[in-house]
Amino acid sequence: MPLTKINGVNINWQVIGERGPWVMATTGGRRGYDEFVPMAQKIARSGFRVMLHDRRNTGASDLWIDGDEGEEAPWLGDMHELMRQNDALPAFFCGSSAGARTSIRFYLNYPQAVRGLLLLRVTGGAFAAGRLPENYYGQFLTAARQDGMAAVCAMDAWKERFKENPRGRDYLANLPVDKFIKVFTRWKEVFEAGGKHPVMGVTEQELRSIKVPVMIIPGNDQTHSSASAAVAHKLIPGSQVHQLPITDQEVPLIPFPDWGPYEEEIARTFVDFMQRTVAAEKTAA
Questions:
Q1: Rounded alpha-carbon distances, angstroms, from residue 148 to 67, 70, 137, 152, 237
Q2: I want to staple 226 with a disulfide (CB 3.0 to 4.6 A). Which of 38, 177, 190, 218 is the partner?
Q3: d(CA 14, CA 155)
Q4: What CATH number has the domain bearing residue 209?
Q5: How many domains does the chain have?
Q6: Which pLDDT belongs to residue 46?
Q7: Same domain assignment for residues 17 and 100
Q8: What is residue 5's predicted lDDT score, i.e. its pLDDT?
Q9: What range does the domain containing 62 cover?
Q10: Element (H, E) at 103
Q11: Pair (74, 162) in one structural domain
Q12: How far apart are alpha carbons 200 and 194 in whole angstroms?
């Protein structure tokens, strides 16, 4: 897969499909794009090109721990530049969990680059606001304060990153612990502040400002409850919802690969939505 330096960071990416409108599909958490490959293949079979990439600090892309805007803010510029370099704009932007809120925020920063939004497993509510800051930042801050960067590198979450990107081990091991603590503390503060909004990191006013077609497929765990999707649907003008044959489960997280049995329905829903959107664009032109 190609590895391209974008905004000073090596980004790992892949395009699935050889023709048709572009889609950028973004996974959640700090996971690489591999879990989206089966869904991307199904979408591509219907005449779309799907851009997959590992965001900085995920998958096989470089680690980059710096800045005070929050960890997710630089993803937007990386995504725009990656798509621009591939002459892939404007495009549809698809995402699950963190990828969903990143797709929304991408639209807010680059509205002319977005034809529509495909949102899976929208994150919001008190449970997510309480759980995720510790998951993404708090546990690593505790380790760094107690035992330094060696302890951070020994944690399972980072060891998983190193399997995909061995370069990351040296980067993290050599990062001054004071810098790591400073940056992660700031990133945690930014992330926690976003937890008070209807969709994590996105205000009610921002949701109401969205003017492109939007399709929402609700999640079914405590981090991605159907109630969060319902709030997003209520606030995003003209948005549509497709309910999979699932119900909410009282578990913190259902991994996206567990949704494998529903991928055909997800892909078909998104393809139909995008085809309708493309047809409407041609009629309006």
A1: 20, 22, 15, 7, 48
A2: 218
A3: 28
A4: 3.40.50.1820
A5: 2
A6: 97
A7: yes
A8: 96
A9: 3-124+198-284
A10: helix 98-109
A11: no
A12: 5
